């Protein structure tokens, strides 16, 4: 069964390559870890020719787990930075922009125009047309601060 | 036996790892539940949450999205029935709130906007609904913002796509517009004809004035000419009368004879020379000629000093 013409190391190597190729077609960063584990298992099978199949499978499973854990730690310690980390984070993007008051801010509550839409606003009292900077966004409410010249 | 267990164990490990790795695509955020309770949100990228303990709860789309508001009939403030439809743009700002605070976000938003659209447009006149789309959007946003804040969703804009008043009102609008334009055209025409009439009258007035001025001028000149003629006549008469005073009857005779001869000459040259009326005796004429002859004699016989002074001719008695 396992063994055949090319022997266990060859089979594991082939499995690793197949997994690596499958990784290219299947979305998700999972199969590459299995490919790494298969590669390690192939090395083991080559180093220990009389390793039983069950042990080989066990080694494969173990190395898979290890590979995933190492990968996770690697990603955590050396995260791949996005060139635009604030993508899809509208609130974060708006901080620092200038808003124009459309409903006078009284008692800290009003509305302001940002871009082509109006947002609920909180901040110092201001008349319609006043221009304030967005200091922070809380839910769907923007917190405004006076322009610091 | 051992091999089967080993294979099953391997499968379990593989599946476990597979379901523990959560790859989140950009544009989405996954809520992670720990035994059914929300704990954290998985950001785009590679995430590892051990299976059995953690599950993906909801996959929240963080991109700006569009919902079509189906067409609906709205009765405006002035009781016109209009059918309208629109679109809503919204974006999730807070994934867990959008996932758990509201049961079905899309349905909730759709119904919220649909009902408020009815409210806002129902408070406006037909003309306002047709012309004040910006205001409709602003008012709608103002209302729905309060509702969507707890859901962590911001409706960025509401656009009315189409407002269709009923056919008969559209026809009436078209008629109104046509009437307006016709009215303007008529007014312009009337103004034009009025202006042209005024201009024409002005022209006529100007012409009459000029004509009268011309007449006045010519009358002045005529009267001046008559005055001059009268003056000349008077002078001539004066000279003649002076001559007569100096020269006596012979001088008058001279003048009369001159005229007589002229008149006879005219008779001779006149085209109807067949009949010549002589109202006076020819002898008289001859007599005048005789008078002239005598005058000539006297003139020739007189001294050169006297001849040098015309108008002071002395006629000796015979």
UniProtKB/TrEMBL annotation, chain A:
Domain of life: Bacteria
PANTHER family in UniProt: INNER MEMBRANE PROTEIN YBBJ
Name used for this protein in its record: NfeD family protein
One term under GO cellular component: plasma membrane
Membrane topology term: Multi-pass membrane protein
Localization: Membrane
Cited InterPro entries: Membrane_assoc_protease, NA-bd_OB-fold, NfeD-like_C
UniProt keyword Transmembrane helix, yes or no: yes
NfeD-like C-terminal domain residues: 92-146
Keywords: Membrane, Transmembrane, Transmembrane helix
Transmembrane feature ranges: 29-47, 53-71
Automatic annotation (TrEMBL), chain B:
Compartment(s) where it occurs, according to its Swiss-Prot or TrEMBL record: Membrane
A biological process from GO: proteolysis
Topology in membrane: Single-pass membrane protein
Gene Ontology molecular function terms on file: peptidase activity
Protein's UniProt keywords contain Membrane: yes
InterPro entries, per the entry: Band7/mec-2_domain, Band_7, Band_7/SPFH_dom_sf, Band_7/stomatin-like_CS, Stomatin_HflK_fam
Pfam family, one: Band_7
Protein name as catalogued: Protein QmcA
SUPFAM superfamilies: Band 7/SPFH domain
Domain Band: 19-177
Highest taxon of the lineage: Bacteria
Primary location group: membrane
PROSITE patterns linked: BAND_7
Signal sequence range: none
Entry similarity comment: Belongs to the band 7/mec-2 family.
Keywords: Hydrolase, Membrane, Protease, Transmembrane, Transmembrane helix
GO cellular component: plasma membrane; side of membrane
PANTHER family linked: STOMATIN-LIKE PROTEIN 2, MITOCHONDRIAL (PTHR43327)
């Amino acid at each position: 069964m396992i063994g055949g013409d090319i022997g266990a190391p060859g089979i594991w190597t082939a499995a690793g390559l197949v997994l690596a190729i499958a990784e290219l077609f299947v979305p998700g960063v999972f199969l590459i870890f299995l490919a790494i584990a298969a590669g390690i298992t192939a090395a083991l099978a080559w180093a220990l020719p009389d390793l039983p199949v069950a042990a080989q499978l066990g080694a494969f499973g173990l190395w898979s787990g290890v590979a995933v854990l190492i990968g996770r730690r690697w990603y955590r310690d050396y995260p791949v930075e996005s060139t635009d980390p604030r993508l899809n984070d509208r609130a974060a993007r708006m901080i620092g922009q200038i808003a124009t008051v459309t409903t006078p801010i009284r008692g800290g509550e009003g509305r302001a125009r940002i871009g082509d839409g109006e947002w609920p606003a909180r901040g110092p009292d201001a008349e319609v047309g006043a221009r304030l900077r967005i200091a922070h966004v809380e839910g769907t409410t923007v917190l405004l601060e006076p322009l610091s010249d | 036996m051992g091999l089967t267990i080993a294979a099953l164990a391997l499968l379990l490990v593989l599946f476990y790892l597979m379901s523990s790795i959560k790859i989140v695509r950009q544009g989405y955020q996954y809520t992670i539940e720990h035994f059914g309770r929300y704990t954290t949100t998985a950001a785009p990228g590679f995430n590892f949450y051990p299976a059995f303990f953690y599950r993906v709860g909801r996959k929240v789309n963080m991109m700006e999205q569009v919902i079509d508001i189906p067409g609906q009939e709205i009765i405006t403030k002035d009781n016109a029935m209009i059918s309208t439809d629109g679109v809503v743009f919204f974006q999730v700002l807070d994934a867990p709130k959008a996932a758990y605070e509201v049961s079905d976000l899309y349905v909730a938003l759709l119904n919220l906007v649909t009902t408020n659209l009815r409210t806002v447009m129902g408070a406006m006149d037909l003309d306002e609904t047709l012309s004040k789309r910006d205001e409709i959007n602003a008012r709608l946003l103002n209302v729905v913002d309060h509702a969507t804040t707890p859901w962590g969703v911001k409706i960025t804009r509401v656009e009315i796509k189409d407002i269709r008043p009923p056919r008969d009102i559209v026809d009436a609008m078209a008629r109104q517009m046509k009437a307006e334009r016709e009215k303007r055209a008529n007014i312009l025409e009337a103004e034009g004809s009025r202006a042209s009439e005024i201009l024409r009258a002005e022209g006529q007035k100007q012409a009459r004035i000029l004509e009268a001025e011309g007449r006045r001028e010519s009358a002045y000149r005529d009267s001046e000419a008559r005055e001059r003629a009268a003056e000349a006549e008077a002078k001539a008469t004066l000279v003649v009368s002076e001559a007569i005073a100096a020269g006596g009857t012979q001088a008058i005779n001279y003048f009369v004879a001159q005229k007589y001869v002229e008149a006879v000459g005219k008779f001779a040259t006149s085209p109807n020379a067949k009949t010549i009326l002589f109202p006076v005796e020819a002898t008289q004429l001859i007599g005048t000629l005789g008078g002239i002859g005598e005058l000539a004699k006297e003139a020739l016989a007189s001294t050169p000093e006297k001849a040098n002074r015309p108008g002071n001719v002395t006629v000796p008695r015979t």
